[in-house]
Every structure is written in C-alpha cells, then in structure tokens.
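Page 47, continued from p. 46.
Same chain as before, 181 aa.
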Amino acid sequence: MDKLSVRDYRIYYETNMSLLILFARRFVSADMAADVVHDVFLEIWENVSSYEKLPTRSYLFMAVRNRCLNIIKREEVRENYISHIQIEKQRMGLEYYDSFERLLIEKEGIQEVYDQIELLPEKCRQIVKMAYCEEKKSSEIAGHLGLSVRTVEHQLYLGLKTLRDKLQPKKKNKRKFFILF
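Result:
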C-alpha cells in the first residue's frame, strides 16, 4: 500500500462501517447487512492500490445499496421458484388424486358391469361372457354351444340391451358408465 496507509484504511473502515450496516439493515437481515458491508470494504481493500484516495461515503452507500438490491432480486427469484415448485407439487397432487379417483370409479363401473352380467339369464350370461370376456366370435360360440349363429347374436343383443338399461346413469348419482362392447 504505497499511497494509502493501513492506518488510514482502518480509520476509513471504522468510521463508515456501523453507519453502512444500519443502512443495509433497512433492506436485508442484520447478518446479511454485516456481510454486505464487509464485502464492500474487502473489495476496496483488494483494489486499494488502484485508488489515489479512498472512495467517498456516497460511493460506499451506493455500493451497499446495489449489493442489497442484488440480494433482494436473488431472494425474489428464489421465492418465485419455490412458490412455482409448491404450486406444481399441489397441481401434481391433484392430478394424481384425480387419476386415482377416476381409476376407482372405473373399477367400480367395471365391477358393476360384471355384477350385472352375473344377473343375466344363464344362457345369455354364458354367451355374453364368451363374446366379451373370452373374445370369441358368434360362429365359435354357436359351434361350442350347439346353437345357431342367429340365436347367439339375438342373445348378445338381449344381453347388451339389458346391461345398458341396468347401467344407465341414476338421476341421483349422475355417474355415467359407458359400455364399449
């Protein structure tokens, strides 16, 4: 330190430090304010050889102000990110719940279809199960049961008509089940 002595710098530091910390505390926490002020003085110390005289008090206030502003901006970005993540987490939770609820409703609906199939007359039930559970063609069912293809198709028609009538949405419940056979 050629032009400025360590003693001059120490006096400069001690004269301005507490006032700058009080200024910075208006914008950031007490710990952060002390860190900001010390960072400003450290930067000045590291570059002291480039100064003919130490920076003015207005420079110190401006430097502290700018660093506080940068901290506030970083905090704002961080909070926006955290807020976005929390909202996204909530949305995903709702989507999961919605898909889980939909799955339960579908399972209930499928179970209701199976329950109604079991209530069909025996021959009709057997033909519907073979057609839609075992995925057999009308001709295969007819050959297996010793019936005509026309009889099998008529029984399928009656079975599906009965199932549609039984599974129509109830006015109170308002749930809709669609049979996609």
